[in-house]
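Weekly sync, protein design subgroup
Attendees: M.S., D.O., the rotation student, P.L. (late)

Item 1: inverse folding check
M.S. brought a backbone from last month's batch and wanted to see whether the design step gives back something sensible before we order anything. D.O. pointed out we never logged the input encoding, so this time it goes straight into the notes. Structure tokens as presented (236 positions):
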């Protein structure tokens, strides 16, 4: 993790220094805030091939949903045969339900690594520790992104809403599981954003800005990809 953290810190440092070289810094949005936003977007660009693969795989899973439900009804009293038939269906159609985990896992690992960078940007992003007190770290209403957002309905709420929207999008792109799994997914869909809203109120606002930007960009990218995948299938 330390190797990844150092690498992300170096990238953030490069972005920040590139922005500062542009000239006068905006008053409402610091170059540090813009560097975090750019970092989140860069992460999504880097993982876009995985996102595209996951979106296509999820689309294939949706198409197989009616057949899966038919198998579940037919073998409702025989779980072993039911699972066997579903796995055979997936294999015949080159669908892997687990392949959607990787595009979700990599951003989580990056966020954890970024947590260390944002908590101590002087160590990773700047040449000298004293410089951290000299740079602006504001973002519109947040005076210092290294501290928690002073407004509870600020970035924590934006993050929670983006998390709920992302969870909703992911659930619509995944084939339906059994009732227990669907119930658990619904609970996570509503409970996780609420929990993360309260947790994020004590985290550095810079991390929440990074994570919210990452969620919003992921939603946009997946929506665009889904549109073009459907359009391509219709044309063919």
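Designed sequence read out in the meeting:
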């Amino acid at each position: 993790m330390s190797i990844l953290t150092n690498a992300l810190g170096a990238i953030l440092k490069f972005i920040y220094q590139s922005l500062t070289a542009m000239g006068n810094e905006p008053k409402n949005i610091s170059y540090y805030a813009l560097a975090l936003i750019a970092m989140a977007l860069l992460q999504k660009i880097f993982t876009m091939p995985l996102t595209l693969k996951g979106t296509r795989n999820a689309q294939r899973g949706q198409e197989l949903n009616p057949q899966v439900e038919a198998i579940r009804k037919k073998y409702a009293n025989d779980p072993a045969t039911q699972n066997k038939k579903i796995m055979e269906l997936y294999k015949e159609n080159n669908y892997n339900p687990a392949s959607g985990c990787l595009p979700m896992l990599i951003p989580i690992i990056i966020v954890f690594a970024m947590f260390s960078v944002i908590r101590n940007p002087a160590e990773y992003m700047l040449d000298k520790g004293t410089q951290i007190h000299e740079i602006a770290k504001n973002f519109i209403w947040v005076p210092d992104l290294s501290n928690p957002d002073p407004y509870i309905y600020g970035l924590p709420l934006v993050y929670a809403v983006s998390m709920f929207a992302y969870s909703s999008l992911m659930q619509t792109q995944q084939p339906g599981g059994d009732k227990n799994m669907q119930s658990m997914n619904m609970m996570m869909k509503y409970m996780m954003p609420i929990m993360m809203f309260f947790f994020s109120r004590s985290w550095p606002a810079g991390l929440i800005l990074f994570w919210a930007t990452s969620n919003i960009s992921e939603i946009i990218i997946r929506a665009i990809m889904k549109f073009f995948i459907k359009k391509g299938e219709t044309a063919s």
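Discussion: The mean pLDDT is 80. Residues 2-235 form one domain.
Action: P.L. to compare against the previous round before Friday.
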